[in-house]
Amino acid sequence: METWPAYGVLLPDQFGEAVQPNVDRTQMEGGSVKQTRRGSLETFIKPASYLFSEIEYSDWKAWRKNNINRGVDWFNRLDPLDGVIKQTRIVSGEFKAEQYSPESPGGELRYVVNLSFEVVE
User: Fold this and answer.
1) 77 close to 4: Cβ distance less than 8 angstroms
2) pLDDT tens digits for 64-99?
3) How far apart are CA 98 and CA 44, in angstroms?
4) Measuring CA to CA, how many Å separate 63 from each of 2, 25, 84, 105?
5) Sign (positive or negative) of CA dihedral 69, 72, 78, 81
6) What is the rounded distance in angstroms from the CA atom of residue 86 to the CA atom of residue 119?
7) Residue 57 class from Cβ within 10 Å (0-12 exposed, 13-18 middle, 19+ buried)?
8) Which of 30, 88, 92, 99 is most buried when burial is the number of CB atoms within 10 A of its CB?
């Protein structure tokens, strides 16, 4: 299985997580709602932003295209919240990249890549 590249900087103020419900709810005639768990795993959506140099961004786009099937396939990634390597994929294979300002001290262009990870735990 592929591994998330070691380059790029995770921007901590852009990172978060939200759990997707893994519960079935059934309204009961006699009162409170019954809840049951669907499975043993939970799915988390974790939005994140990475800062890449121009070369790193180009390499990352090639990695996404060639190694993880344009973001469709699962890969290993170190979760910054708990330091555990988890199976991850890019939600819908989508990302948005914007040129980062200011430029690096050497004048090299930098890019911020915004995406959301899907993680099953």
Assistant:
1) yes
2) 999 999 999 999 999 988 899 999 999 999 999 999
3) 25
4) 10, 41, 22, 26
5) positive
6) 7
7) buried
8) 88
Instruction: Take residue 31 and report the two structure tokens written for it.
Output: 């009162």
- Taking 80 as the threshold, does the pLDDT of residue 104 lie above it? no
- The helix/strand count (H/E) of the chain reads as 1, 8
Which distant-in-sequence residues (6+ apart) come within 8 Å of 39 by Cβ?
22
CA-to-CA distance for 48 and 57, rounded, in angstroms? 15
Looking at residue 105, its amino acid is P
Six-digit token pair at 4? 């998330």
For the record, the structure tokens of 85 come out as 């390597």
Q: Using CA atoms of 61, 67, 70, 72 in order, give the dihedral in degrees to the nearest 10.
A: -140
In the block, tokens 């390499």 appear at 59
Beta pairing partners, 104 = none
Closest-CA residue to 90 (of 51, 112, 61): 61
Residue with tokens 């309204």: 27
Q: Which pTM does this prediction carry? A: 0.81
